[in-house]
TrEMBL record:
Transmembrane intervals: none
Name of this chain's protein: Sec-independent protein translocase protein TatB
InterPro entries: TatA/B/E (IPR003369), TatB (IPR018448)
GO biological process: protein transport by the Tat complex
Entry GO MF terms: protein transmembrane transporter activity
Assembly information from the UniProt record: The Tat system comprises two distinct complexes: a TatABC complex, containing multiple copies of TatA, TatB and TatC subunits, and a separate TatA complex, containing only TatA subunits. Substrates initially bind to the TatABC complex, which probably triggers association of the separate TatA complex to form the active translocon.
UniProt key word Cell inner membrane: yes
Upper classification of the organism: Bacteria, Pseudomonadati, Pseudomonadota, Betaproteobacteria, Burkholderiales
Function: Part of the twin-arginine translocation (Tat) system that transports large folded proteins containing a characteristic twin-arginine motif in their signal peptide across membranes. Together with TatC, TatB is part of a receptor directly interacting with Tat signal peptides. TatB may form an oligomeric binding site that transiently accommodates folded Tat precursor proteins before their translocation.
Superkingdom to which the source organism belongs: Bacteria
Keywords: Cell inner membrane, Cell membrane, Membrane, Protein transport, Translocation, Transmembrane, Transmembrane helix, Transport
One cellular component term from this protein's GO annotations in UniProt: TAT protein transport complex
Gene assigned in the entry: tatB
Length: 149
């Protein structure tokens, strides 16, 4: 920019006073001030317009990124949905086949084994000596059993 110090401005003012004259100098200074103000406003408007256009471009870029991300998410959702539908149809087919086999094949028969008896290989005399409970009682039944008479 222009490097105008106080001495240079004083020199320009003295030359303007000599060239223009003392009676026209205030009017010329006012006109120059208006023109400089208009120039500054014009420059600031141009700067603001450039900033707005740059922000608009950035917003458009962000908008496009969000749109592509949304499309990718919706495509992923479509893939998940189709996979879920495939699994559901396979499950329904397998379930219907199992129902067909159960209706036509042999039904389930309980082995009629008492699994509680074979739970441990500890002899009964040892359990009695050690005080291991063999039967489960509720709290009320235990109180009634051991209630003093």
């Amino acid at each position: 920019m222009l490097d105008l110090g106080l001495d240079k401005l004083a020199l320009v003012g003295a030359v303007a006073l000599i060239v223009i004259g003392p009676e026209k100098l205030p009017k010329v200074a006012r006109t120059v001030g208006h023109l400089l103000g208009k120039a500054r406003r014009y420059v600031s408007d141009v700067k603001a317009e450039v900033n707005r256009s740059m922000e608009l471009e950035e917003l458009n870029k962000v908008k496009n990124q969000f749109q592509t991300a949304a499309q990718e998410v919706s495509a992923g959702f479509q893939d998940v949905q189709s996979g879920l539908n495939e699994v559901q149809t396979e499950f329904n087919e397998a379930f219907s086949e199992s129902n067909d086999w159960a209706a036509s094949g042999p039904s389930y028969q309980h082995p009629k084994k008492n699994w509680r008896v074979k739970r441990a290989a500890t002899p009964m005399w040892f359990k009695q000596r050690a005080g291991v409970r063999r039967h489960v009682q509720s709290g009320a039944a235990r109180v009634a059993r051991f209630k003093p008479r």
